[in-house]
Amino acid sequence: MKLLNISTAVLLSCCAISISAKEQQSWVDTFLEELGSSEDIDVSKGVDWAVLPGPFANPEQGFGIGVAAVGLYSPLEDIDSAPLSTVSITGYGSTSGSYGIGINNRTYFENDDLRLLVQAKASHTPEYYWGVGKQAAEIDSNKTLVEAQILGFTPKVAYQFLPNTYVLFGADMESYRKLSSDTDTLNQSELKDAFLSAATLSVEYDSRDFELNAYKGMLFSINWNAYRTEFGSDVDFDEITVNYRQYYKMTSDTVLAWEIYAQDIQGDAPWFALSALGSDKRMRGYYSGQYRDNSQLSSQLEVRHQFNQRHGMVAWVGGGNIADSYQGLLDSKWLPTYGIGYRFAFKPRVNVRLDYGLGKNSQAVYFQINEAF
């Protein structure tokens, strides 16, 4: 779901509630159970769904309602032979006319030897654009409101060829239509309709015990997206992404997690396809896309503590940078990120999260399902 610029007091109130929460049944528990909240997972009759709606308000979208849903299922007769498959759906609509929906599905087959991964999105949301590069991002007069209709579809198939080691093949397609801006910062050629299409090749090592909320294990992945006119793309460029995540269970109730993320763009990439710093997953606290350039490097360290079966908190610290090329990522001072978050276990190890992140002269609140990484 789109980041939600709601009051910090909401987050702090939720954290206080989590610490003093009672284990007794209440009208809140009853309401949440109607939405699919439970202390166990039952996939014997199909998909075990949980749904959580919530209001939001921010200057770009006005007042709106968002919905986050997660479903767990298994396509196998022996459900213990592979991890549970997951599908998550997030959506929102607001008084400004903005709307969006996103779907993320991960299907695991026998012995986890084969995975089917599908992501799809559709949105029409006003967003701000500052320009390309760190210097442009820090000049407030560069701020331009841009609107566009965006469609995206990313299917992948993963095959396990060594223990915990996968090769992935797939595609990445995005359509940008009806782009417009409220200034002349972007010229007409930069606002024309565009279609991006890439062949995707990835290699990853994944030993996490549960992808949605890992307690132990690691993920190391290298992904190459080759956008080519031969595949129907309007422009040719390459995108390389490297992601390393590690999880360590310090105590029965506390997990230490850390991540390093790097991305490099080579070729004739349009401005909206450049590496954008800031999201609900990493560099929380920054407006997504305020800082954008050809290369990005970031890291974060997060402590996750569970107070009881339902309620928990996290705290994180990290930093990141953008540059015209990867050689320049260490040449300037990194941007900081830090914050706290509240966790509510809607189902076992499936958390609803409310995060308050701080950056350089910026802050943001995020409402999402599943951990940031």
Automatic annotation (TrEMBL):
A Pfam family: Omp85
Keywords: Membrane, Signal
Coarse class of the protein's main subcellular location: membrane
Superkingdom per UniProt: Bacteria
Ranges of residues in domain Bacterial surface antigen (D15): 91-373
Record localization: Membrane
Signal sequence coordinates: 1-21
Name used for this protein in its record: Bacterial surface antigen (D15) domain-containing protein
Organism: Aliivibrio finisterrensis
Lineage, opening ranks: Bacteria, Pseudomonadati, Pseudomonadota, Gammaproteobacteria, Vibrionales
